[in-house]
Amino acid sequence: MKSENDAIVDYMYNYYKTGRNDSEIISKTEFFTRKPFFFWKDSFGDYMTFLNQDFGAMAECGKPVIYLYPEKTTKISVMVGADITKSEPTYGNGWTVTANPNGKLVWNGKTFNSLYWEGEGNGIYPEIKSGFVVPTAQIAQTLESQLTQLGLNEREKADFMAFWLPKMPKTPYTRLTWFGTREMDKMAPLSVSPKPDTTIRIFLDYAGLSKKIDLKAQQLTKVERVGFTLVEWGGLLRGNLK
Known about the structure:
Elements: H1 7-17, H2 28-33, E1 37-41, E2 47-51, E3 60-69, E4 74-80, E5 82-88, E6 95-99, E7 105-107, E8 110-112, E9 115-121, E10 132-135, H3 139-149, H4 154-164, E11 173-179, H5 181-187, E12 190-193, E13 198-209, E14 229-237
Parallel strand pairs: 13-14
Antiparallel strand pairs: 1-2, 3-9, 3-14, 4-6, 4-12, 5-9, 6-7, 7-8, 10-11, 11-13
């Protein structure tokens, strides 16, 4: 990059600011002069981004919601590899609930539709290497379509949209990147007993953009539900990012 005003520098600087307090953030000029990232073109003509981990995002997992669908009514224990800051029902040293095939969960005599938590995962936050840059005016239909492609059912999609749609940026464009089960298992691993036959974990990292940037298109895949199924969705709480 020849200028700190380049759109890609703006994007990477915003990524660096994610989750950091104002007192911890260096200026964009200093960020640019310290050369925190570079691009490499592979033999297929695709560009890869390499980021100095000192400038990676520091962020909290925002409202991950866990759904449990056993084949028969079953007592299930769930533990999350994260520093839990909020939960419902109360997390304690983990949840133990009675789960029904329709997804209804019973904990201490109370009924819940899902397990909710917020907190910082104990693993490394993944790099952004691909995604989608979409006009923010089209964000609702884009999210709806992509959630279907990722395998969420109607109730799960409605819950996701109700929580995250109001939090989407007001900028002309939005970058959407989805992490799946493999990334989530590294960032905030789950320990579930009995073990699910099918696990679908998705997590949205997004950022507002003033203009389009070039970004490798992400491939979304759907996991078929077989047997006892666990589904989780979440997203990035972006701290002071504007």
